[in-house]
Amino acid sequence: MNMRSRSRAWALNACSPATWLAGVFGLFYFSYGIYLPYWSLWLDGAGVSAHHIGLLLGASMLARTVGNLWVMSQVRSALHLQPALRILACISLFSGLAFYWADSGLYLWLLMLLLNFFYPALIPLNDTLASRYIVQVRLDYGRARLWGSLAFIVANILVGQVSAHYGVDWILHLWLLGLLGLSLMSLVPVSPKPMSGADEPKGEGLSTVWRRAGMPSFLLIVALLQGSHAFYYGFSALYWQQQGYATSTVGYLWGLGVLAEILVLACNKRWFSHLSARYLLLLGAGCALVRWGILGTTTELGWLIAAQLLHAGSFCFSHLGAIRYISRDLAPHAAAGAQALYAALAMGLMVALLLALSGYLYPVWAGRVFWLMAALVLPVFWVLRKPLTPAPSFT
Q: Mean pLDDT lowest for which of 50-64, 174-188, 219-233?
């Protein structure tokens, strides 16, 4: 078979970008939907003390921030994206397998730091792949990404049921199953491959992207919006349980928020594709302000349901606005660096700092910490009074 025939056969057997990315998002967020809420439970079952767990998770968040920046700084071309996905998925899988021999000593520390240096970097990498295909084949980002949200819910429910019946060891087993699936999915051929434009320069470094007009303002906005979710992520379940709600009810409330997110993602192209990044970020800020105000004021079930439906705005509109800014308002060769800064600063470092602050304030303020989260959103409206990227001057 000559080279042309092989290329034709490869293309016929390849996935479309939409199908392939739906699989990548689904398998990654299935694994992440296990790791994020349940990993501390697995550590506890492995005999790690609560104090030690806190130190491990804090150090892991710092490793995540550094890892996101380093990994994405190495991705300087669209041709690097799929190979980088394969490498990160395999490193994550083999790091996970090593936890079968982990204890609470130095070995566990090294494993946690190694894992969190590489594994969370799949988040900005996957979104960079999606941003590339938005430009290249007009990908419907919402339709691809919603499979990740759906898989996150499935993982939450499945692991909760399985670990309750068969023990916390199944947290590790099922997490590794998700990572194995992601590793295999990364090997599936996709056509067309992510490619840079013929005249597109090499990807910009992080310092160059940071100096782009509007980038510091954009990063401040998304850091405040995503960071305002820190208390919700870390303490809402505990707070609602202390207010008398059963664990199952708390789980349903969390699931309702993700279902609302899925609805927005499914309708993104039809209802929201005409909206600018700035307008989406404003909508996200408005929803966040109302949501945290409700949660800081009452724990009545009806209002909690309303607040959880606003997750579709506080998180999803904010995230879609960030992706739209990166994919539409920036040059394609700046996308990888912008994704790295967004993931590391807004969804990594800012959340870590506010989680630490929330842990300090919660024993004194309890649910009133939600009001602090609402206050963090207010500067967003002031920053967004002007377009994110100044119009070019023709003088």
A: 50-64
For 12-76, the DSSP string reads HHSBPHHHHHHHHHHHHHHHHHHHHHHHHHHHHHTT--HHHHHHHHHHHHHHHHHHHHHHHHT--
Q: Is 138 left (phi over 0), alpha (psi -120 to 50) or beta?
A: left
Task: Please tell me which residue, 4 or 178, carries the higher pLDDT value.
Answer: 178
Average pLDDT value for residue range 9-30: 82
Distance CA 242, CA 238 (A): 6
Cα–Cα distance measured from residue 172 to residue 346, given in angstroms and rounded to the nearest whole number = 28
Separation between Cα atoms, residue 336 and residue 354, nearest integer Å: 26
- Is the previous residue joined to 192 through a cis bond, with omega within 30 degrees of 0? yes
Q: Which of 126, 128, 142, 315 is nearest to 209 (CA)?
A: 128
Q: Which residues contact 323 (CB under 8 A, 6 or more apart)?
A: 127, 130, 131, 134, 141
How many Å apart are CA 391 and CA 119, to the nearest integer? 38
- Average pLDDT in the 159-187 region? 89
Average pLDDT, the chain: 84
CA distance 93 to 97: 6
Q: What is the dihedral of CA 161, 162, 163, 167, to 10 degrees?
A: 140
Pairwise CA distance, residues 229 & 86, whole Å: 30
**Can you give the pTM of this predicted structure?**
0.77
Q: In the structure encoding, which two tokens stand for residue 289, read together?
A: 């302000």
